[in-house]
Design goal:
Layout (H helix, E strand, L loop, with lengths): L3 E4 L9 H16 L3 E6 L11 H11 L9 E2 L4 H13 L3 E4 L3 H6 L20 E4 L6 E5 L3 E5 L1 H4 L4 E3 L7 H11 L4 E5 L6 H11 L5 E5 L1 E3 L22 H9 L13 H10 L11 E3 L2
Parallel strand pairs: 1-2, 1-9, 2-3, 9-10, 11-12
Antiparallel strand pairs: 4-5, 5-8, 6-7
The protein binds glutamic acid.
The site of glutamic acid has 7 residues, from loops.
């Protein structure tokens, strides 16, 4: 089976060093296996998006020497597919329409949805759609973090697949598109490790194949704060500063020359592919940058 990896940024801001780490790892993993590497723009949450970020991200990827296979898939063009998946879930009695507000749920206490709106199995206005999560443990083997087990019904409960504001939830869109693009290997930041069991629940209910998963340590600033678009992490400069690719490979525990010699981006990526070792990726959820 052809190995198919992907990089799936949300256009909430330009790429920063943390996103470069995910791009480098997914790229090297796919290319080292002789596989395909796809880019998917996860632009289904307009309120969180930054105008121009999608174009900026693609320009940054190009500047850092990444070559993706085929066209970029924009999730904003995939709403019919998500609606179709939702309809499949509805027909099987796996969703319900919920008008509970965050405040309502906080009042009755706890993070796990208490089942208040289970009876509303037909569409109604001004409601979120939640998945009726079946009881049972989901097992999967993360390629870095090892065996994982989660009973999603007990830890998260019935989660939202279509938001009350009419936007599809990330969990639904990501499983529909990973299957649509025949992704075999999901490689992404460890902040999504605890979303994976939810995604597997959805794959099972929708009859979709389950990819392999590999989660990567998240980069923290030297002061321990998370490097993210929300905290305005420094954007990757263009023209490219190719040393950042060496630093991303070193962050991933990969074999890099100690002096990190100046080199064109494409050459550093070639080195990364040629020496790619998933086993060397540190098994830790967060790592500080020096
Ligand atoms: N779009 C998500 C993000 O930028 C990543 C989704 C994924 O890799 O599954 O955080």
């Amino acid at each position: 089976m052809t190995h198919i990896g992907r990089f799936a940024p949300s256009p909430t801001g330009p790429l920063h060093f943390g996103s470069l780490v995910a791009a480098v790892a997914s790229y090297c993993d796919a290319r080292a296996a002789g596989g395909r590497w796809l880019v998917r723009m996860e632009d289904i949450d307009p309120p969180r998006e930054m105008p121009g970020a999608a174009a900026r991200i693609l320009a940054q990827l190009g500047a850092y020497g990444f070559e993706w296979d085929g066209d970029v898939l924009f999730q904003s063009g995939r709403l019919d597919a998500y609606a179709h998946a939702l309809e499949t879930l509805r027909r099987a009695g796996n969703v319900f329409w919920c008008r509970c507000s965050r405040a309502d749920l906080a009042r009755i206490g706890g993070a796990v949805y208490p089942g208040t709106c289970h009876a509303f199995t037909a569409p109604r206005d001004d409601a979120a759609v939640r998945l009726r999560v079946p009881a049972g443990v989901v097992d999967f083997a993360d390629r870095v973090f090892g065996p994982q087990r989660e009973d999603v019904a007990a830890t998260v409960g019935d989660f939202v697949v279509l938001r009350r504001d009419g936007l599809f939830a990330y969990q639904l869109a990501v499983v529909v598109d990973d299957a649509f693009q025949a992704v075999t290997d999901v490689v992404r930041g460890a902040d999504l490790l605890d979303n994976t069991a939810r995604q597997i629940v959805l794959q099972r209910l929708l009859g979709l194949p389950e990819p392999r998963y590999m989660h990567l340590p998240l980069a923290l600033n030297a002061d321990g704060s998370k490097l993210s678009k929300q905290t305005h992490a420094k954007e990757l400069p263009t023209p490219a500063d190719s040393r950042l690719l060496w630093r991303a490979l070193a962050f991933l525990g990969q074999d890099v020359p100690p002096e990190m010699p100046p080199a064109p981006c494409a050459e550093i990526l070639r080195h990364g592919v040629g020496h790619w070792s998933p086993a060397a990726v540190p098994r830790t959820s967060h790592m500080r940058l020096a």
